[in-house]
Write a structure and sequence with these properties.
The chain is α+β, with helices and mostly antiparallel strands. It has three helices and five strands, in the order βαββαββα.
Length: 155
Amino acid sequence: MRRGYELMYIVRPELGDDGARDEVRSVRGLLEANGAEVVKTTLWGKRRLAYEVRHLRDGYYVLVVMWLDGDKVAPIERALRIHDTVFRHLLVVHEGEMPEPDGELDVVEQGDTAAAPPEPVAEEGVTVSVAEEDTDVDDEELSAAPAADDEDGES
C-alpha cells in the first residue's frame, strides 16, 4: 500500500554546496530506484547539529516528501545506512496533506526562519512523536491527587 513518507537526512559538511546538491540528486535516484515517487525535496542548507555525530558538528539538512510502498522502507533505510555521505537519516510516515509536487529542488536560505528546522533531528531508528499537551487541569484532578507531606508531617 502506498503511503506518504518524509525522509530527513544529513549530508557530510565538507562536500560544499555543489557537492550537497549532487548528493541530493544521488539520494533521489536511490529513492526512485526503490519505487518512491518524490513529491518535494527541500535543502535546508548547512546547519549546526544539536550534538557531535561521528566527529562532525555541521551538516547539510535535506527533507524529502514522497509516496512509497511500505515494503520498500527497509531496503531504502539499508541503502541510506551504508551511504558514504549521508551520516544520519530518519524516515517517518507523513501526516497531513501532501505538498504540491514542484519537480525542482527547493532551497531554503539560511536566514529564512519560517522554514528552519523546528528541533534537532532524532537519531536513526528513533520514532519521534509530537502531541499536543493537555495543559488544562480540572479542580477534580487537583482534589483527587494526594497531598505531599513535608518532613514535619504538615501538608
